[in-house]
Design brief:
Layout (H helix, E strand, L loop, with lengths): L13 H13 L2 H8 L3 H15 L4 E3 L4 E3 L1 H20 L12 E6 L2 H18 L3 E6 L3 H10 L4 E4 L8 E9 L1 E5 L12 H6 L1 E5 L6 H9 L7 E6 L5 H6 L5 E4 H11 L2 E3 L8 E8 L6 H14 L7
Parallel strand pairs: 3-4, 3-5, 8-9
Antiparallel strand pairs: 1-2, 5-12, 6-12, 7-10, 7-11
Helix pairs in contact: 1-2, 1-3, 1-4, 2-3, 5-11
């Protein structure tokens, strides 16, 4: 058969093509009708429409059943292939993690890398050894575009303002605590206000976040007027600084717990309430039903919901 290049001038009914394919394979109108759940008049009407559509008899009655015309013989394979393609669009795509070979790109901060990646890589090694992770720390605009395009599969952290097309699920609420060196003179569990006022502070001001300004706003309250002796860009710098000085550092609680265990530091509750923030999982509406994205999100929620992994 040769394509003419002409546009279709009539609507193609897939049910008619299904009828043609079934009659061609069974060579019996009654059997074809039973297979498709059609009455004999419905089969006859459908064949009449097909004959009109193609301008050919298509099938000729014989002593036993029907036989296709030469035109129908040429039509059979293209119709069967077309139906197979259409059926394939309804097949549910399944993501098989054990056999998958792909890289997920996840946006997160340096805190996120320190908190999430040790647990995530172990989880992946057990369930999806062919899957790897690449992290990124884009600007908010770049992140929004990356999630929409699929260049970034998901984001973890505190990233408000990504737009209505981005879903988010809160994993846990983060609060600030104090980090002190193990040999610090204060031995209690909650720093008193008088001591907070006296102790020199080191605070982190990660680019693109409001954490530092929120912390400093609390520290500069009239009843505190705490001294900020040092400002750094990364929360990950705070622990080694605290370990070697008498400076104290407000730090998100889950990160503080992790670094305190590894460096032998102490965690104390503040006497004032610093602003809390939600750590969330973000993904775009375009990939809401994508099997691979769904599998990754379910895994991240299972690992980190409630912050239990860090305790």
């Amino acid at each position: 058969m040769h394509a003419t290049g002409k546009p279709l001038t009539r609507q193609v009914d897939l049910n008619l093509l299904e009828l043609f394919d079934t009659v061609y394979r069974l060579r019996n109108l009654t059997a074809a009708g039973q297979r498709l759940g059609l009455s004999q008049p419905a089969v006859s009407y459908g064949l009449a429409r097909l004959r009109d559509m193609y301008g050919d008899a298509l099938f000729v009655r014989m002593q036993r059943g029907v036989q296709p015309t030469p035109f129908a013989e040429r039509l059979a394979d293209p119709v069967a292939q077309a139906l197979e393609i259409v059926r394939g669009t309804f097949a549910k795509v399944v993501f098989e993690p054990a056999e998958a070979r792909r890289t997920f790109r996840i946006a997160m901060s340096d805190i996120g890398e320190r908190l999430f990646l040790p647990y995530l890589t172990t989880w992946l090694a057990q369930r999806a050894p062919g899957v790897s992770v690449e992290t990124d720390s884009p600007s908010l605009d770049e992140l929004s575009e990356g999630l929409a395009s699929g260049e970034i599969d998901a984001a973890l952290g505190f990233m408000p303002g990504l737009g209505k097309q981005v879903h988010q699920k809160t994993l846990f609420t983060e609060r600030f605590v104090y980090l002190l060196r193990a040999g610090h003179a204060f031995r209690g569990e909650t720093l008193p206000t008088t001591l907070v006022r006296q102790l020199p502070h080191v605070i982190a001001s990660p680019p693109g976040t409001e954490h530092a300004s929120a912390v400093e706003k609390v520290l500069q309250q009239p009843r505190l007027k705490a001294t900020v002796a040092l400002r750094v860009r990364s929360f990950l710098s705070l622990a080694p600084i605290v370990a070697g000085t008498d400076l104290v550092a407000p730090m998100p609680s889950n990160l503080a717990g992790v670094v305190a265990r590894h460096l032998g530091l102490r965690v104390c509750a503040p006497p004032v309430r610093f602003p809390a923030f939600d750590v969330c999982l973000y993904w775009h509406q375009r990939f809401h039903q994508d099997p691979a994205s769904l599998w990754l999100r379910e895994g991240l929620v299972g690992l980190f919901a409630g912050g239990q992994a860090f305790r």
